[in-house]
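Troubleshooting log. The previous structure file for this entry was overwritten by mistake, so regenerating from the original sequence record. Sequence copied from the archived sheet and checked twice against the printout by T.R.
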Amino acid sequence: MHTYSPIFLPMAILALWTMSVLLLVPFARFKAGRQGQITAEDFRYGESDRVPDAVRLPNRNFMNLLEVPVLFYVAGFTAFLSNNVDSLIMGLAWAFLALRIGHSIVHLSYNNVMHRLALFALSNVVISAIWWVLLYRMLTA
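Regenerated output below.
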């Protein structure tokens, strides 16, 4: 028997978005390699100073999608396991997903730092709200 909860949909979409951004990393690196801008040695210890910004950017965005979003995945499973998936949690989950995708789009396209910051900060407020709601519900159950 399979158990489905709507909380898994925004979690799955964010995971797939993360994997899509990951695909950009080798494309940027191979393109720069073909153009002679970098060599494999530039990645021996991470990224050397020779790595162009256009090559660093997709990798940095991918790393962003592995940092704070971990709290989202854990919150989703916590909400599911504690039977706390309701319209409030779902609304916050969809908002978090939209803000993180928006952050990636800004970061990977025109990269306006203030726009990126606004989306990043709002997504952090949303994930904090999810956790505060869950904590409140755990303490008052």
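Residues 87 and 110 are 34 Å apart (CA to CA). Archived copy saved in two places this time.
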